Write the structure tokens for this entry.
Amino acid sequence: MEVLRKAGVLKDSTGAWMAALAAASAVWILAYIHLEDAADVAVASLGLVRAMPSGEALHFFIFEVPKVLMLLLAVVFVMGVVHTFVSPERTKALLSGRRTGIGNLMAAALGIVTPFCSCSAVPLFIGFLQAGVPLGVTFSFLVSAPMVNEVALALLFGMFGWRVALLYLVMGLLVAIVSGVVIGKLRMEGYLEEWVRKLQNSAPGAEFAAEAHTWPRRFGEGVRHVREIVGRVWLYIVFGVGLGAGIHGYVPENFMASLMGRGEWWAVPVAVLLGVPMYSNAAGILPVVEALLGKGAALGTAMAFMMSVIALSAPEMIILRKVLKPRLIAVFAGVVAVGIMLVGYVFNMIL
């Protein structure tokens, strides 16, 4: 759309933008409903059949890459427009001075509309502390932002349906809220690094003066949001789908069922431990989860694995070490890990 605008085809008017969006939406829907047909044709053209491991793996890859990218494009564009109504200054002012519980709920809900990975959420975490937001409230955001953002929810809905997406939303928010409340009650501000403690309350939130946005500017911001976020995560998606395709085509079903099946009580803790050394975001890890489920893994166990990858990754812990002392990092990781395991068991019981 930006190319069309620069070429003069798309004018800076609401009507022109609406017409372009309507056309793009029609193309998106038409392409999306024929993705599986295209994958079938591609596999057949190479002389493969889906009964073969290589054919099934290739079909999974060709179908899932555009599917995930298309879902991501649509959701990120919409949220880019939504973000024009919000600003960091307004967010900090909103969260500053909030009571325990209410502030945690608001911070966790904020994470839904901030599609950060665990590492990129850390700078905003520091900014919240600088604005006087309580430590426990900032932790609720730090857990929620990578784990319960709109990208994760959109892909869960597209892959597994609204029940799974809704339960994930509720349980993810509970983990974020309870983790933040527990850490806040422990009064661990003394375990922030000294330079971070000096920043606390140094920049209280000011009253936000909204910029004058027109709808063309908001739509343009949606396009910029797509370029920035999709440009940052598309390689993760391709890698994740590739790994998922390998699992889908070649890993024996009985092996995955025995390792991550519903019947073994230890499967959920093991899945959490396996996820911690990895680093990805929801867009990259969800295709892997889908492949694991197809091979017999229990839904709750696979969800616990995914949540540990995106909320407790080793790179995040390394970055947090610059901000937090080891004891606070250990408490954070322990509280969140317990919450994730509980989510896994609940998913296994309900679905």
Summary: Residues 93 and 205 are 4 Å apart (CA to CA). The two ends are 41 Å apart (CA to CA).
